[in-house]
């Protein structure tokens, strides 16, 4: 049960005692006996545990009362004002529910109406037990592969264009946990490993660091020392006896000089699945047979890839060898050491780049013919701006992360300064921190190019894209795609006087097949019509004044800047941030059994004043970080 | 028998690429290999997202005397090599617009929905795409079992593998395409170090050992990793390809400028690469994802200034931009087919020995329908396909998988049936076969 659901719980009642009598109008409606079966029969296919259209689940009373993206479903005591009944009856501008199924019978609707009239009582939600996700293997992302190569071979360029990460839900970590490796990727790793090995073995600095003898004085002892030392670093754990023998045999078998043998070993290690995948299988937990606990070495990798985006350093490997990561204190000590290091910046950057979809800034959609500000450097500048703002706030242990929504400052170089109408720095290529005008329209990330320009079209802004971004990315409320076989064609644009985009999009609210979902996006995106496609402020759209008002879940606001303030106060934002950080750390989409983790993390985040650093430490300290379930059969 | 003309292969090329000595491989007639084996057959897939406009796509006439419709007009130079199939239907289910059509036409199997309450809708394939079915049957002897290429990078990247990738070996098991022609070229002729055979042996053993500790999906991941490594090992043992790689700037880099993808140039480069790869017998199977399913490609060349996907929904009336974009995409397909036709192969050309499937992810973008599905089949497939091609229209909404079965049979894959569940068929489409 979500934190938000608990907060919004309006009425909690016990289910009716006594024998069930279905048709007795004298007895109050029993939610579990009479309403839940209706939901289960007609609704949960789309509003269920796995798939929750409009972020609405009707799997239980508490969830039903919590509602979804369109707000609260029922007003207890007032069936006439309850949105649920309107949809069941097909009233107003929206599709009748259930969608593309026979409607509920008059009797069923009547009992739902009576339930609402009687106060919409529901039984309390059963406590959700934490069930860890199954253990498994996670492939290195491109960035993690590069940092691993850097760790093992120093600053050498990777001589092959690696297959790009597959993003699942915008996350490379989740994609890397799921996707099966292609032939092409296997081949590229092989090619890269071979070339990297050839280069490393001819580098005297590398040789003297890792091989305990001169190339001309190779010996079995030297080979064994090298395999053990370098192998442990490559696999992020000591090699097993079988592995050591395998690699030593490879060195022995390789024709030619000792160097050739070392080269072969390096080439094999750099493309071995034990290097390319991070293993998170654990061992049975002696205190709890239903789950497994990650080993020290597995914890070391999980921790360092989470905090540094890189493999464990020697100190962390030593801590694992000494068993210090199996205690909460030992784990925390290493976590704090690593967070204090500047190496943790990289992971913060990776996380927020993915979260805010900054990768799209490499190829801005805008045509230069329409927006003269477009250049090949503008998108990357916008990325730099947003990262600097977010990092300033997130890396400060004392600051409230939600400042990103209404921050009255930003970082600009010359190009951005001109776009935003603020004074450019003396050196136009440098980034400087600027205070934004106090009464001005811009504040926070939603006033930045990274949000405005990415969510736009080549020659116009897109209120739907901007609204959808806020809904899905900042609030974790996915907007369902349109149902199949429904015509999405808008009525023909009539001839007449000029209209603003808001006016042209009015049909999204009135057309039956559009309203349900566009209601969740348009009121959030339309206020940003005060910015054109590239993110420059404007007073007029098509010659007409712009109406910048909007609504967040029933709460109206007059301008985008006010939306920033509303987002700051929305509990959904913290839950969404916690959810995304958990995915980033664990490398999978959270299962139902992990919802208690999301709850705990977001509640702690709220209590701690939204300090990002605390959230990171809490993720590491959580049960989800240390325990896994049995691997799937 | 015509002498091979180097310029025919490498129009516009600046590199010197050593050509295969095909003459030495052929028999006296040039219609078979000297060993007596038939000339290899090939299979290709060309895919574009967001459908067509059926009223301007479907030819009016049926049978052999069909005339090119407006949207197919650019195929004039290769019309004899093209059959149009209309009126068939994807029957693998319509769970989600675009996703369902894409998976249905590319694999004949239902899609796998991957919903999540707090994350955007996603889907993946349940079975292998047609190019991979072919690759496993006819692609084992070549350096690459298959080649995956892409042109427009404007894919929808947050709805799972279906919208990211055309080629799949199974669920969450994609073959990501290469979008950079230069990278394709380097891959085709890149050499693995032959000394690495024993290296790969050790790597394979590591894969086996790790896989043994895993179950379910993760086990399958390591199993495939193991297989991939074994295939690489075999490749190292095989003789190097008869084509060599010379120095030079071909095929070059193509940069997007100011939001405008150079689709014409990219497609032309990929077409030349396919012709080269087939001529050198580096592969017999390719797929070209010209624009992905639900792609947000902007066809600025014809005046679009919004993502094409959005226009298919929003453009009013007769949708002139959507129509113009479809014509443009078919022009690109024509470029590919012409490149293949103009490349000698034995006594004929590459199109004579090939079969290509060209289709999209929905009939019409604005309706998300799977009926009257727009499908083209191109090539002679060594005499298995009707030539000149025909327009076959099904009046009874036949299963589109029949076309897929015919395409695979034409490529030399001896299947009795193809597809799963609603997409399962035991008959091909006789009308397009000899």
Report on the structure:
The complex is a heterodimer of chains A (633) and B (434). Helix content of chain A is 46%, strand content 6%. Chain A is mainly α and 633 residues long. In chain A, strands 3-4-11 form a three-stranded antiparallel beta sheet. A two-stranded antiparallel sheet of chain A has the order 1-2. In chain A, helix 11 (241-253) packs across helix 12 and helix 14 (296-307) runs parallel beside helix 16. Helices cover 31% and strands 11% of the residues of chain B. At the A-B interface, helix 8, helix 11 and helix 12 of A face strand 7, helix 8, helix 9 and helix 11 of B.
In terms of per-residue confidence, which ranges of chain B show pLDDT below 50 for 5 or more consecutive residues? 1-19
Tally of DSSP β-strands of chain A: 11
- The CATH architecture of the largest domain in chain B is 3-Layer(aba) Sandwich
The termini of chain A sit apart by 28 Å
Give the helices and strands of chain B as they follow along the chain: HHEHEHEEHEHEEHHHHEHHEEEEEH
Structural class of chain A: mainly alpha
Stretches of chain A where pLDDT is under 50 for at least 5 consecutive residues are: 3-22
Characterize the overall form of chain B.
globular
Strand count, sense and closure of the main sheet of chain B? 7 strands, mixed
- Give the overall average pLDDT of chain A: 90
Structural domain tally of chain B: 2
């Amino acid at each position: 049960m979500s934190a938000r659901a608990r907060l919004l719980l309006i009425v909690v009642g016990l289910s009716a005692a006594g024998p069930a009598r279905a048709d007795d109008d004298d007895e109050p409606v029993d939610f579990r006996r009479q309403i839940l079966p209706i939901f289960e029969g007609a609704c949960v296919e789309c509003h269920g545990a796995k798939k929750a259209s409009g972020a609405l689940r009707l799997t239980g009373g508490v969830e039903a009362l919590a509602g979804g993206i369109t707000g609260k479903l029922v007003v207890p005591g007032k069936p006439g004002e309850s949105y649920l009944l309107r949809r069941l009856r097909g009233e107003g501008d929206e599709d009748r529910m259930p969608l593309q199924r026979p409607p509920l019978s008059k009797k069923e609707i009547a009992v739902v109406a009576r339930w609402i009239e009687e106060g919409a009582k529901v039984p309390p939600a059963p406590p959700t037990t934490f069930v860890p996700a199954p253990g498994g293997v996670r492939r290195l992302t491109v960035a993690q592969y590069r940092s691993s190569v850097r760790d093992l071979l120093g600053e050498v360029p990777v001589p092959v264009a690696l297959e790009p990460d597959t993003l699942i839900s915008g996350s490379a970590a989740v994609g890397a946990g799921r996707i099966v490796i292609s032939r092409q990727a296997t081949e590229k790793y092989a090619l890269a490993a071979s070339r990297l090995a050839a280069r490393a073995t001819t580098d005297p600095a590398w040789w003297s660091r890792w091989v305990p003898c001169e190339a001309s004085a190779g010996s079995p002892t030297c080979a064994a020392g090298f395999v053990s030392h370098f192998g442990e670093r490559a696999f992020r754990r000591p090699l097993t006896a079988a592995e050591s023998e395998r690699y030593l045999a490879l060195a022995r078998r390789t024709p030619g000089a000792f160097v050739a043998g070392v080269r072969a070993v390096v080439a094999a290690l750099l493309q071995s699945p034990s290097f390319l995948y991070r293993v998170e299988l654990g061992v049975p937990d002696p205190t709890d047979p239903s789950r497994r606990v990650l080993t020290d070495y597995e914890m070391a990798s999980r921790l360092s890839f989470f905090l540094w985006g890189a493999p464990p350093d020697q100190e962390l490997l030593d801590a694992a060898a000494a068993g210090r990561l199996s205690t909460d204190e030992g784990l925390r000590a290493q976590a704090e050491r690593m967070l204090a290091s500047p190496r943790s910046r990289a992971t913060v950057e990776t996380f927020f780049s993915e979260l805010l979809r900054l990768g799209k800034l490499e190829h801005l959609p805008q045509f230069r013919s329409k927006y003269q500000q477009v250049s090949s450097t503008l998108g990357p500048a916008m990325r730099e701006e947003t990262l600097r703002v977010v990092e300033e706030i997130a890396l400060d242990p004392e600051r409230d992360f939600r400042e990103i929504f209404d921050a009255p400052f930003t970082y600009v170089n010359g190009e951005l300064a001109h776009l935003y109408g603020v004074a450019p720095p003396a050196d136009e290529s440098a980034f400087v921190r600027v205070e934004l005008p106090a009464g001005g329209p811009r504040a926070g990330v939603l006033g930045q190019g990274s949000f405005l320009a990415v969510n736009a079209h080549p020659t116009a802004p897109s209120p739907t894209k901007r609204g959808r971004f806020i809904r899905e990315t900042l609030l974790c409320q996915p907007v369902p795609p349109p149902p199949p076989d429904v015509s999405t064609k808008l009525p023909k644009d009539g001839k007449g006087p000029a209209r603003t985009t808001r006016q042209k999009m009015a049909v999204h609210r009135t057309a039956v097949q559009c309203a349900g979902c566009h209601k969740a996006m348009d009121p959030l995106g339309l206020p940003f019509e005060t910015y054109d496609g590239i993110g420059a402020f404007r007073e007029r759209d098509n010659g007409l004044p712009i109406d910048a008002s909007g609504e967040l879940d029933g709460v109206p606001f007059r301008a985008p800047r006010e939306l920033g303030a509303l987002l700051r106060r929305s509990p959904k934002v913290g839950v969404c941030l916690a959810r995304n950080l958990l995915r980033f750390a664990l490398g999978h989409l959270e299962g139902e059994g992990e919802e208690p983790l999301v709850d705990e993390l977001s509640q702690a985040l709220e209590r701690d004043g939204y300090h990002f650093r605390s959230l990171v430490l809490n993720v590491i300290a959580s049960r989800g970080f240390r325990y896994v379930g049995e691997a799937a059969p | 028998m015509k002498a091979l003309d180097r310029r025919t292969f490498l129009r516009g090329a600046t590199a010197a690429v050593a050509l295969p000595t095909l003459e030495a491989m052929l028999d006296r007639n040039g219609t078979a290999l000297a060993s007596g084996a038939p000339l290899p057959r090939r299979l290709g897939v060309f895919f574009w997202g967001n459908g067509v406009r059926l009223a301007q796509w479907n030819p009016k006439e049926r049978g052999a005397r069909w005339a090119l419709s407006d949207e197919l007009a650019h195929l004039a130079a290769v019309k004899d090599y093209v059959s149009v199939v209309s009126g068939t239907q994807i029957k693998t289910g319509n769970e989600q617009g675009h996703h369902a059509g894409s998976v249905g036409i590319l694999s004949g199997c239902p899609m796998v929905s991957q919903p999540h309450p707090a994350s955007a809708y996603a889907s993946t394939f349940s079975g292998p795409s047609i190019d991979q079915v072919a690759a496993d049957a006819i692609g084992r002897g070549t350096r690459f079992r298959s080649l995956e290429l892409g042109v427009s990078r404007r894919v929808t990247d947050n709805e799972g593998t279906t919208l990211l990738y055309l080629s799949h070996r199974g669920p969450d098991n994609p073959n990501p395409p290469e979008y950079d022609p230069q990278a394709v070229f380097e891959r085709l002729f890149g050499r693995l170090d032959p000394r690495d055979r024993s290296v790969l042996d050790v790597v394979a053993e590591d894969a086996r050992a790790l896989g043994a500790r895993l179950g379910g999906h993760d086990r399958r991941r390591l199993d495939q990793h193991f297989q991939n490594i074994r295939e690489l090992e075999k490749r190292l043992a095989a003789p190097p390809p008869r084509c060599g790689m010379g120095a030079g700037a071909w095929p070059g880099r193509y940069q997007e400028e100011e939001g405008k993808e150079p689709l014409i140039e990219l497609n032309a480069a990929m077409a030349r690469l396919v012709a080269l790869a087939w001529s050198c017998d580096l592969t017999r199977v390719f797929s070209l994802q010209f624009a992905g399913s639900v792609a947000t490609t902007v066809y600025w060349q014809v005046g679009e200034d919004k993502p094409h996907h959005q226009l298919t929904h929003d453009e009013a009336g007769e949708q002139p931009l959507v129509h113009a974009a479809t014509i443009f995409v078919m022009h690109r397909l024509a470029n590919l087919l012409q490149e293949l036709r103009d490349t000698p192969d034995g006594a004929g050309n590459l199109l004579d020995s090939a079969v290509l499937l060209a289709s999209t992810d929905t009939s019409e973008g604005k309706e998300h329908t799977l009926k009257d599905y727009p499908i083209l089949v191109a090539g002679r497939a060594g005499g298995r396909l009707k030539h000149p091609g025909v327009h076959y229209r099904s009046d009874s909404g036949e299963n589109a998988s029949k076309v897929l079965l015919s395409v695979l049979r034409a490529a030399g894959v001896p299947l009795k049936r193809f597809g799963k569940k609603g997409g399962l068929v035991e008959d091909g489409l006789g009308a397009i076969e000899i």
